[in-house]
Amino acid sequence: MRAGPGAARSLFVAGTILVAAHVTLLVFDPRALFLSNLFLLIYPLLGVTACLLGAYSESPEARSLWLLFGCGLLVAAVGEFGLTYSDFGTHIHTQTQALNSDFFFFAYAIPVMLAICSRSTDAGLKSFAWLDGAQALIAAMLAYLQLFSVLPSYARPEAISTTNLMYLNNVENLILVGAVTLRFFSNPSPARRRFYQTLSRYLWVNGIVALIVSYFGLKHGWHNGVQDAAWGIPYLALMASIALQHSTPVDKSERSSGQRTVGLLIDNLSPVLFTLAITLMGVKIAPDHPWLGFVCISAAVAIYGIRAAILQVSYVRSQEDLTKAMIATEQASRAKGQFLANMSHEIRTPMNGILGMTELALSTTLSEEQRGFLLTVKSSADRLLTIINEILDYSKMEAGKTVLDSVPFHLPSVVSEVLRSLAFPAHQKGLELAVHIAPNVPADLTGDRGRLGQVLINLVGNAIKFTDHGEVCVDVSVETVTNGRAGLQFSVRDTGIGIALDQQGGLFQEFQQAQTSGNRLYGGTGLGLAVSKSIVTLMGGTIGLKSMPGEGTTIIFDAYFDMSPGSQPASPIPSEEDLQGLPILIIDDNATNRRILSELTRQWKMKPHMCDSGESGLAELSRAATEGNPYRLLLLDEHMPGMDGMEVLDRIRRNPGLQSVVIMMLTSCDQVESAARCRQMGVETYLTKPISPSDLLGSIRLAMGVHTPASTNTLPAAGISASSLSLNILLAEDNLVNQRVAMTMLDKMGHRITLATNGLEALMQWRQGDFDLILMDVQMPEMTGLQATKQIRWEETIGAHVPIVAMTASAMSEDRDRCLAAGMDDFISKPVSYKAIEDMITATFSHRK
Question: How far apart are CA 292 and CA 288, in angstroms?
Answer without folding.
Answer: 9
